[in-house]
Amino acid sequence: TAPPFSQSHLLTPLESAPNPPLHTCSPPPNLILTMDEFLDPHSEYDEEEEERKYYRRKRLGVVKNVVAASTGGMITYSVYIGLLQMQLILHYDETYREVKYSSMGLEDIDSKMLMGINVTPIIGLLYTPVLIRFLGTKWMMFLASGIYALFVSTNFWERYYTLVPSAVAIGVAIVPLWASLGNYITRMAQQYYEFVNYNEKHVQEQKKIPKGACHRYIIIFQSVFYVIFHLCLVFAEFPMVFFLNNFLYDYNHTLFKVTECGASSQGYISGLNKTVLLHLPRSLLLIKVESVLMGAAFLAMIIFLVLCGAAYRPTEEIDLRSIGWGNIFQLPFKHLRDYRIRLLCPFFIYSGFETLFAVTGLIMSYGVCTLGLERLWALVMVYGLSASASSTLSLSFLCLPRLVPLLGGAVLHVLVLVGLMTWSPMPGNPSWEPLLLVLAALWGIGSALNKTGLSTLLGMLYEDKERLDFVYTIYHWWQAIAIFIVYLWSSLPMRAKISILLVTLLLSCLCYVLMEHRVMKKVPFRLPRIPRPRHKVKGYRYLEDDDSDESESEKSDEEDVESGEERDKDADGDGDADSQVSHLDLGEGGEMVRGCRRRRDDAYEQAGGME
Length: 611
Fold this sequence. Notes:
Blueprint: H1 13-16, H2 29-39, H3 47-92, H4 94-101, H5 106-119, H6 124-135, H7 137-154, H8 160-196, H9 201-204, H10 215-229, H11 232-235, H12 238-242, H13 251-254, H14 283-307, H15 314-321, H16 325-335, H17 339-371, H18 376-390, H19 403-421, H20 433-461, H21 468-488, H22 494-520, H23 552-573, H24 576-603
Helix pairs in contact: 3-7, 3-8, 3-10, 3-14, 5-8, 6-7, 6-8, 6-16, 6-21, 7-8, 7-14, 8-10, 8-21, 10-18, 10-20, 16-21, 17-20, 17-21, 17-22, 18-20, 19-20, 19-22, 23-24
């Protein structure tokens, strides 16, 4: 018979064998140390040091934004001024017009083109703030640089329907571009202050910056911007130096019929020869020069697009747009109620006058009329280099009163204008070149102090980031009106032009001193109330408790309303006597809520007396 069934018969030989000794496999000690370092808090991690490094990178990013915006503006205007100068000289030559374009009427096209550039900016006050707030500051700069690139591209096919519309487009873009640049540089100064003082409570809570806290950075950044930007007058002469100068007659031919220059002249240069080109440039060579300018214009667009960061946070951009397009349209006009900006308007006008007089008056009617067209590049380069180097003089705002830089530049211009009014050099006299170069350098110093001083002053007076685009729009709009007036007076005698400049400059200084006196006496000024942004209906923000971007004013409104509702419920649940007291408290609470709201609304209107 078979043996009884037992589990021992199922054991394999390996299992039935005696158990071998167990050897535990322990990890190597270096692996244990590595896991401990990975899981435990890093002993060498310094949170404060990492925070400092983070905000150091942020500050370097702000400096990069300022340099990029300045370089982009400089390249844009180098291309624009250089191409416009070359185009006007070529189109002025009678032989060039007849051979290349015969009966197309280039002179009429040029006059219409200049009219489009100078007249269109007059309506800039109507649309500039709307464009800036709709597109954003950075994208407005990018779009404006694209319009300048469009103007360059139209010169490949010179016709009425290409040149004139592109010139009108440039006139439309001038005021938005300059308002965006001024707004952007001032906003970068405010951001730099925030990244330097990141530990401050008002910075962490994103509250308003204390008055005068970021003046130092505004002064430095505006100086850096104009040091770089004024170099556009140097680079704009490269087409003249390396290309067009090889085709020009000397002064003996171009100034043969010119009889008077300087103070005794009328218009720009009366009697300038109609043929200024010794021989005509080849079309292929012109295309190469314009292609280089086109590439530079595209480079400026790429700089604005890639290297320039945003001027505002996304929620701040929403706030700027959420006040309503009607309010955005009206606020530039309402800001003119402030006596500070009204008294600065004559200075804005003079700033436009002196910019165009430097080219059409000093350089053309004095310089080119005396030295010839072949020395135009030297006068413009000296003027640009002087203005660039002298922009650093506005750093004197850091240690001197605000009056000194602006009035110093004005005094220098008065001295130059008085000298110009009494001087009429003889045409075709190269011996006056050193004196003319010195006059161009002195005018550049005054221009630098004027431009940098006004932009810095506006940034210091109007520190509220919600108002910067309106203020800079007013400034550059008055400049555009002044440039249009200079365009209209082109046929006046030179002494009449200088007299208008002197009267405007003296009036500007008087109004500016009066403004500073009122500010020193703390005379209340009037600023329009900027409405609070409304987001809930539009759905722009997350309104959950844990993930909310609501401003402090909106949260306080909700808390007041909720506290009032709770009081109402408590009053309904109590007895008659208690309910009367609760309703009385609710009424007082309601008055308190409404009073708080009124006070918050009034706080948005920043009056000088309240400060």
